[in-house]
Every structure is written in structure tokens, then in C-alpha cells.
Amino acid sequence: MDIRNKIRIGVIGGASPEPEFRQIAYDIGKRIAEKGAILVCGGLGGVMEAAARGAKKSGGLTIGILPGISCDDANLYIDIPIATGLGYSRNSVVAMNADVLIAVDGQYGTLTEIAYGNIYGKKVIGIGTWDIRGVEKVETPQQAVDLALKDFFPLTS
Q: What is the pLDDT of residues 113-133, one digit of tens each?
């Protein structure tokens, strides 16, 4: 499988989300895999783990960009763990290695990823996250993934 031409969708969000947001992240991950895209995330728990679990459930490929120095820190659903040793600064690497970002819930770490996404000119889509300029709000996982893929697979008339 040549993964160089696949769309990479970054899922960013809180490490300790409410169950509602875990389910949303899971559904987003599942849809990403069903559409044949690659899931990129921070590789740890919460939204990251839920999205990766959803992607794996549907046979998808997952990449986790980790803050620490050990690939063993990745959650069980990460196929390709990348240890950075960068702490929160790795959020820049997450944003840079996604073609588009979907933010689910989240706090200040998610805010930095949103900011980096905007700095790097990436589309940022949000569900239940920061209500700021540069985030396109949607209501459902389906809307999030459809909007994420829209620029890559526009509808033709």
C-alpha cells in the first residue's frame, strides 16, 4: 500500500473528555478509516485513543505523534508511534503532518494545535471545541469527516 498519496486527517482533542466526546472521536476515527484516509493524532489517551480505536475497528492506519521519548507510550490502537521528546511542542508536529484537522473538545493543548493548524494554513474543523476564528464548527462526526475530505474530493455536477 502506498501511503504517500493518502489524505492524513488529524484528530485533536482532550486527554480526559466526557463520554459524549469519546464517542464522537470514535465515530470520527471510524469514518476516517472507512473513507480510506490516515488518522494522525497525539497518540495518547482520551480523544486520541478513541479516534484511533475507531479507525482500527474499520481497518484504518493510525499514526501517533508522541510527546515523550518512548514509542511504548502510544495507546494500543496506534500503528506507527513517533516519539519526539518535545512535550507539548509536539503539537506543532501533529498539525504539520495532517492535511486537515478535526478538533473534538479539548483544552489548551488542543488550542495550540488549532493555532498551529491555522498558522500552517490547514483547515480546522471543530465539534464541541474552542469557538474561535479559524475553526469551522460542525455538529456530527459525519459532517466533520465529509468537510475534511471536501477539498480533496469535491462534488462534481
A: 999 999 999 999 999 999 999
